[in-house]
Design goal:
Blueprint lengths: L1 H22 L10 H9 L5 E2 L3 E2 L6 E2 L1 H15 L5 H14 L11 H4 L11 H6 L6 H5 L1 E2 L2 H14 L14 H16 L5 H9 L8 E9 L3 E13 L2 E10 L4 E11 L3 E8 L2 E10 L2 E8 L6 E8 L4 E6 L2 E3 L3 E9 L5 E2 L4 E10 L2 E8 L6 E7 L2 E9 L4 E5 L2 E5 L12 E2 L1 E7 L5 E6 L3 E6 L2 H5 L2 H4 L1 E4 L4 E4 L16 E11 L2 E12 L10
Parallel strand pairs: 14-20, 22-30
Antiparallel strand pairs: 1-2, 3-4, 5-6, 5-12, 6-7, 7-8, 8-9, 9-10, 10-11, 11-12, 13-15, 15-18, 16-19, 17-18, 19-20, 21-24, 23-28, 24-25, 26-29, 27-28, 29-30
């Protein structure tokens, strides 16, 4: 029993340190080279095959996070002894030589970017057979031949023998379905051999091309929009020094320094300390663009959408804010690279004054005519296009984003931090054709209510946590038994999230669903 407990604790610690390992630059002075590591550390269990291949290892392709999880599993389940530096070296080598092409990660990058409130939409069979224990994205972010998919099925049943007795297993012949239905399906859908990977290996650019200045824009729920410049300097061996200088729309700074590594020719993983807080960068490089998410290392729910364009290219990244009411005036900022000329916002929207202009930033004062046509129009600066402005005469609907969210109790004397719920109020309009269109994120007043009668009887609003009324940030209650609750239960709850928006003297509300639940002890890089 003590040994099992130690294994569980070790597994939890490895999971917590895994992302730090992935994002931290290797110390090549102390680490052995990858080929030596494979021979001395891996070959004891993974037998050599033709063409310098190793059993199991050579028949899989994964993201950096996927390879990190595989090595961590060797540590927790098989007692592998390996230093952090050596582990980083192996992850880098395997992700570079047996990674995924950019096209192979499309549609499932939310898992890498720690967007944990994403509601997945896989086919029913995949959701029930695979997605009930972990995300479907974890499956979609690896490639194997049929033989390896079958070995993975066998591993699952051998490692977790109670699997067949769980919900969505005990009502069917799970093992038979997994072998005969899921293995062929996964081998066809996610094959080891894919022309996309071979083409990417031949075409991927040199990592040094990432060096230079990048204009970026972003949005942080509970705080707002931001923009700035990220400076990247090559440190050799696909590593970089990173400096970020920016500000939020309210003028508060967003400045920091750190480092980054490029895996597979496009998978950017960085650690940047912003105003004393370590933030991860999980970005995908595509030509002159970087796109993904930045989030706090200790609180991945506190994250911002991030898109950047390299200086020297021409790109209109964002219009901030991206909406304007008919008959009204507003100050708007355009963010990008190579911006030159007077911006155009379409018929009925006039530039009253250019307040600031540079190749990376144009700030203007706009006025929309009272009869300007409502809807989303393309914004241009000279020949550049790519961003939009929503013109509206009234808000037709308010949506809470995310519509469904999970927060987690924590602290209260324990070591596991609380996981907040963070929300935006998204305004929607209705065009002349009656079709709905997105206006953008607007200021709101926030509150929570009991989701149903049970939540009301249990006083979930009182115990589950508090909502910051002007920001849409929900902080859950402390972990552990609460003597003030029925049966001294914990501070979990089932809540409605209400956003109230004023528009022309009219109050509109949107509603979301928030589950406040217990801590998550196993928090792997890919959920």
């Amino acid at each position: 029993m003590k040994r099992k407990l130690r294994l569980r604790l070790t597994g939890s610690l490895l999971a917590m340190t895994a992302c730090a390992t992935l994002h931290a630059p290797p110390s090549f002075a102390d680490a052995r080279d990858a080929q030596t590591l494979l021979k001395q550390t891996c070959q004891g269990c993974h037998t050599p095959e033709a063409g310098d291949a190793l059993s199991r290892i050579s028949h899989q392709r994964k993201t950096p996070e996927g390879w990190l999880m595989s090595i961590a599993r060797m540590q927790t389940m098989h007692g592998l002894q390996i230093s952090d530096d050596d582990r980083r070296t192996l992850v880098k080598y395997l992700a570079d030589t047996q990674g995924l092409a950019p096209s192979e990660t499309e549609g499932v990058r939310y898992a890498l970017e720690r967007r944990l409130n994403t509601v997945e939409h896989f086919d029913e069979q995949t959701s029930q057979m695979c997605g009930r224990c972990h995300s479907g994205a974890r499956v979609a972010l690896q490639r194997r031949p049929a033989e390896e998919w079958e070995r993975l099925v066998n591993f699952h049943l051998g490692q977790w023998p109670s699997l067949e007795y769980q919900a969505l297993s005990r009502d069917r012949d799970w093992f038979d379905l997994a072998r005969k239905d899921m293995v062929p399906l996964l081998a066809k859908r996610y094959p080891l051999d894919n022309p996309a990977w071979k083409a990417w290996q031949q075409a991927r650019p040199q990592a040094e091309a990432m060096a230079g200045d990048w204009s970026f824009s972003g949005h942080l729920p509970g705080k707002g929009e931001l923009s700035g410049v990220m400076s990247v300097a090559s440190a050799g061996a696909d590593q970089f020094k990173v400096t970020v200088k920016g500000q939020y729309a309210d003028g508060s700074p967003f400045n920091g320094e750190g480092s980054a590594i490029l895996y597979s020719g496009y998978e950017w993983r960085g650690n940047v300390t912003v105003d004393g807080v370590v933030m991860r960068q999980v970005l995908a490089a595509k030509g002159d663009e970087l796109q993904g998410r930045m989030f706090e290392a200790e609180h991945d729910e506190r994250g911002l959408d991030f898109v950047a364009a390299r200086h020297g290219s021409q790109r209109l990244l964002a219009v901030q804010p991206g909406y304007l009411k008919t008959g009204g005036e507003s100050e708007v900022t355009l963010v990008g690279t190579g911006l030159a000329g007077t911006p155009s916002f379409g018929k009925g929207v006039h530039v009253l004054q250019v307040l600031e202009q540079s190749p990376e930033r144009i700030r203007v004062r706009l006025k929309a005519a009272a009869d300007a046509k409502p809807g989303v129009r393309e914004v241009s600066v000279g020949t550049l296009k790519g961003a939009s402005l929503a013109v509206y005469n009234r808000i037709a609907e308010v949506k809470v984003v995310p519509a469904f969210s999970v927060a987690r109790i924590g602290e209260g004397g324990g070591s596991t931090p609380k996981v907040q719920g963070r929300f935006d109020a998204e305004a929607w309009g209705k065009g002349a054709d009656g079709k709905a269109y997105r206006i953008g994120v607007v200021p709101a007043q926030w509150k929570v209510e009991a989701f149903d009668e049970r939540a009301k009887d249990d006083e979930d609003v009182k115990f589950a946590g508090t909502m910051q009324a002007d920001a849409g940030v929900f902080t859950p209650g402390d972990a552990g038994p609460n003597p003030q609750r029925k049966m001294s239960t914990n501070n979990a709850g089932n809540l409605k999230v209400i956003a109230a928006v004023e528009d022309g003297g009219k109050a509109l509300t949107g509603e979301g669903h928030l589950i406040v639940t217990v801590q998550r002890w196993n928090n792997p890089p890919i959920p």
